[in-house]
Amino acid sequence: MDVRYRSTRNSEVTVTASQAILKGLADDGGLFVPDHLPKLSVSMEELKGMTYQETAYAVMKEFLTDFTEEELKNCIQKAYDSKFDTEEIAPLVKVDGTYFIELFHGATIAFKDMALSILPHLLTTSAKKNHVKNEIVILTATSGDTGKAAMAGFANVEGTRIIVFYPKNGVSKVQEMQMVTQTGDNVDVVAIHGNFDNAQSGVKAMFEDKKLAEELDKHGYQFSSANSINIGRLVPQVVYYVYAYAKLLDNEEIQPGEQINVVVPTGNFGNILAAYYAKNMGVPIAKLICASNENKVLFDFFQTGVYDRKDREFKLTTSPSMDILISSNLERLIYQIAGCDDKKNAELMQALKSEGVYEITDAMKAGLKDFAAGYATEAQTAETIHDVYKKTGYVMDTHTAVAAHVCQEYQENSGDKTKCVVASTASPYKFAGSVMAAIDEKYASVDEFDLLKELSQVSNTEMPNAIKEILNANILHTLECDVDKMEDTVKAILEL
Ligand SMILES: *Cc1c(COP(=O)(O)O)cnc(C)c1O
Questions:
Q1: Of 184, 294, 369, 411, which one has the fewest beta carbons inside 10 Å?
Q2: Ramachandran assignment for 79, one of left (phi > 0), alpha (psi -120 to 50 degrees), beta (any other)
Q3: pLDDT (tens digit, 9 = 90+) per residue, 17-56?
Q4: Structural domains in the chain?
């Protein structure tokens, strides 16, 4: 059955998958969601023997029903190739009884590569299918990892330009260097004097601005999004949950039909929502465990049913890609648990915008029964990196450590013996300063760049290419702007 996409704030209009990918955000400011959540049409027995690319096709064809087999396979082939440093694409590693699905083997060594290496191909294919003549301008807010992964994905892709906004003091040194050294004639990156929520709100406001859209159109441009509000980001992320389950079966770590729990270090709620979609496709996932850092607005939401971002201090943590107080993709879950009630969802989102808070109904709370949530303090995050390393030699990054802590705490408190898969979202090299300081405090005062070699020795792993590249690269981007000047900056870049 064809899947069509409609806005979480207005169910009346539906569009095809390719149109939803092109637009990014719906005209009413809502997010595109599938009109029904599709099921897998191949068995786990078949999936067991599949490569990552084959699994990607089996999953994505169920969502992107207006793509031909040839189009979709072509996108998959271009995305999941030697840009990844392992043929497995997403290896599943067992550490001390817990499984880590390592999602950081792509070009920019964070899990954003899993979707952003395919999004440019999905987008240009969508443009062709819909006879789009305009150049597509990808506008992206980043808490550190999306920006680089999107720039790497879109660099020199014909018919596209990309402009990235990141919080000036809100990303790691490695993350910043990765972005400001990005080559490509069509890429721009701007440091804003604000935090990630400011960047995201500024970008969303530009998407919703009809006058700006007209002006762009006159100059032969249109916006689209590489953030996880784009359904073209979300769908490729469903793949690795299916793949992880099939690998567990193939490795005889679980029995056919056995349920697993997944633990996801969460910021914008895209990754864990993909796990929810995988569960709905038929993957035997019991609990979806949402892990937050000290910006724990989601933890509080799952405890109380109240989403409250008022009077909350935005904290800069050692897991900066999760420093978020407005989790965009939660809206897709809210819509779903409201029984796909667009009016109810729109009302709650309006309340969030105007009052900074909303509360879901009891009926909606019942829809969250498969979710659990926890959070890690900065000390607990560091302790987890330290303890796991001392016990096993495995070095994990700060984001993954947040999830590993929450996983352990969940198991202790609940007594639930279900096997757990932790989404491992970044390479430790990307956050070498914090990771090494956690392993031994003697590293705490050493410059992050001086620790990269040391990390290679300590973890007994080879330094990834993504790191080697930035050690000798030139700084190409130095643009900065105030939060209220984001639109002017875009206009200047596009020479409107
Ligand atoms: C983006 C990111 C996250 C958060 O993922 P969401 O899909 O935004 O919830 C976690 N860890 C890392 C390393 C990231 O880059």
A1: 369
A2: alpha
A3: 999 999 999 989 899 999 999 999 999 999 999 999 999 9
A4: 92-109+232-464 (3.40.50.1100)
- Six token digits for residue 163: 């402009």
Atom of ligand 1 nearest to the CA of 267: 9
CA distance 213 to 149: 25
**Residue 172: pLDDT over 90:** no
Token pair 């079966």 is found at 249
Tokens (6 digits) for 316: 């800069």
Out of 104, 109, 111, 405, give the residue to mutate to test ligand 1, the one with the largest number of ligand atoms within 8 Å of its CB: 111
Task: Return all residues near 85 (Cβ < 8 A) that are at least 6 apart.
Answer: 105, 464, 465
Closest among 89, 107, 204, 111 to 151, alpha carbons compared:
107
CB 472 within 8 A of CB 177: no
Q: Rounded to an integer, what distance in angstroms lies between the CA atom of residue 136 and that of residue 222? A: 5
Residue nearest to atom 14 of ligand 1 (CA): 321
Identify the CA nearest to 266 among candidates 144, 166, 400.
400
CA–CA gap between residue 120 and residue 153 (Å, rounded) = 6
DSSP state of 322: G
Q: What is the pLDDT of residues 451-487, one digit of tens each?
A: 999 999 999 999 999 999 999 899 999 999 999 999 9
